[in-house]
């Protein structure tokens, strides 16, 4: 009887369940916003399978004890910068199956306690900033599978010192020079991919044909490896300056020539008029 009373007790939001003193379960309740009167000492908040469009930027300031937040399968289109702060104790965050379009710099606000982050199955997610995960020093698992990513800067992954597993399969990767560095990282860190590179494909830029990454090698991107030396850059800069100087001098010379020709023409015309008189 006491358990039943707690499940729908005074401290539990309307239409939600509270199976223990620190868990609030509002999954699949048709919510269009965060429920009111969530206990301030909540540690596990389950909000999956609703229609929630946004999270207030001060949300985790109010619920500083929250360690587990499940917002899977909602209507989130963006996460306001500062939503996750350095003081946050959040360990698990699931934002999968939403309508996110990009993950810009500062989205997660250096939440150093975060260990698992789910961002998969966001069909419109096409851009992840290189510094999107900056400060997530404890992050071990990152899920970015089945999004709309055609490219991803290596820095977004290489700056995660605790990363143990990353899921990237099911994205429309494009096998161009922008993908070359990521391909090298994947080959060197294939042990961090749950299914290896076998489950990943990319589209060839020439004909759009999709190929497995297992069919590619570093030589596939050798045309992208040409880098300019300092000498090359100095030659290019000097050549550009030289061309500009020559162009200016040529323009000046032509202008002077035209001016002289005009003065000569006027002088000749004057002499002819005097002769006729």
UniProtKB/TrEMBL annotation:
Positions of the LRRNT domain: 11-44
Predominant place of localization: membrane
4Fe-4S recorded as keyword: no
Domain (LRRCT) ranges: 171-225
GO CC terms: voltage-gated potassium channel complex
Localization per Swiss-Prot or TrEMBL: Cell membrane
Topology relative to the membrane: Single-pass membrane protein
Highest taxon above the source species: Eukaryota
Keywords: Cell membrane, Disulfide bond, Ion channel, Ion transport, Leucine-rich repeat, Membrane, Repeat, Signal, Transmembrane, Transmembrane helix, Transport
Membrane-spanning residues: 233-255
GO molecular function, one term: voltage-gated potassium channel activity
Subunit-structure text: Interacts with KCNMA1.
PANTHER family recorded: GH08155P, LEUCINE-RICH REPEAT-CONTAINING PROTEIN 38
Protein name: Leucine-rich repeat-containing protein 38
Classification lineage: Eukaryota, Metazoa, Chordata, Craniata, Vertebrata
